Amino acid sequence: MAEKTERVYNIPLRGEWVKVARIRRAGKSMQIIKWFLEKNTKSQDIKLSKGINEFVWRGGVKKPPGAIKVAVSIKEGKVFARLPEEKGPDKEEKKKGTLGKLIGKKGGPKEGEVKKEEPKKEEVKASTEEKKVEEKVSKEEKPTEKPAEEKTKKVVPKEEKVVEAEK
């Protein structure tokens, strides 16, 4: 059977990141987390979650947190670290029914809103190619130069009507 253990560690970061330049503190904090987990789990294969990365970097590069609480699960020699509030890699997310979509929870349309279907990539490519072909054909059909007759207009002098006076 595969070993599966879960632990929660409180990792102090401030003691080490104060020793480096301000613009390197968040990066150093990430290195400290990995080093701490390597030392305590005795494994080189460590995966940190997005939540940990966002938590460390949310104060910017100059102001990382002083400490972080990390939930660690070990499966077959691989170490997965996440924040305790996050869902673990082995925990399945609950399926949302239609009710969740109707009331406007994550991913579903809000009240009175109809979700529009986006065209598939293949359809978009085909439609753009058709437009290009139509443009080429329309350019070929239209003459680029007007005939010489249309270019020069003939000026015809008006005929003067001679009105004879009645006697």
Question: What does this entry show, briefly?
Answer:
The protein is an alpha+beta fold. The protein is built from six helices and four strands. Helix content is 35%, strand content 16%.
Commentary on this structure:
- It is a single chain.
- The protein is of the alpha+beta class.
- It has a domain at 4-82: Ribosomal protein L31 (Ribosomal Protein L31e, Chain: W, Roll), CATH 3.10.440.
- It has six helices and four strands; from the N terminus they run E-H-H-E-H-E-E-H-H-H.
- The chain has helices at residues 14-17, 25-41, 50-57, 98-102, 121-141, 148-151, and strands at 4-12, 46-48, 67-75, 78-82.
- It has a four-stranded mixed sheet with strand order 1-3-4-2.
- Strand 3 and strand 4 (78-82) form a beta hairpin.
- The longest helix is centred in the C-terminal third of the chain and has 21 residues, at 121-141.
- It is elongated.
- The termini are far apart.
Q: In terms of topology, how is this protein built?
A:
Blueprint: E1 4-12, H1 14-17, H2 25-41, E2 46-48, H3 50-57, E3 67-75, E4 78-82, H4 98-102, H5 121-141, H6 148-151
Parallel strand pairs: 2-4
Antiparallel strand pairs: 1-3, 3-4
Individual helix count: 6
Quaternary state of the chains? single chain
CA-based shape: elongated
Low-confidence stretches: 91-96
Question: What proportion of the residues is helical, as a percent range?
Answer: 25-40%
The count of β-strands is 4
Q: What is the CATH homologous superfamily assignment of one domain?
A: Ribosomal protein L31
Largest β sheet strand count, sense and barrel closure: 4 strands, mixed
What is the C-alpha radius of gyration, as a whole number of Å? 37 Å
CATH domain class of one domain: Alpha Beta
The secondary-structure class comes to: alpha+beta
In the CATH hierarchy, the third-tier topology of one domain is known as Ribosomal Protein L31e, Chain: W
Widest sheet: strand ordering: 1-3-4-2
Order of helices and strands: EHHEHEEHHH
**Range of strand content:** 15-25%
End-to-end C-alpha gap: 134 Å
Rounded average pLDDT: 75
CATH architecture of one domain: Roll
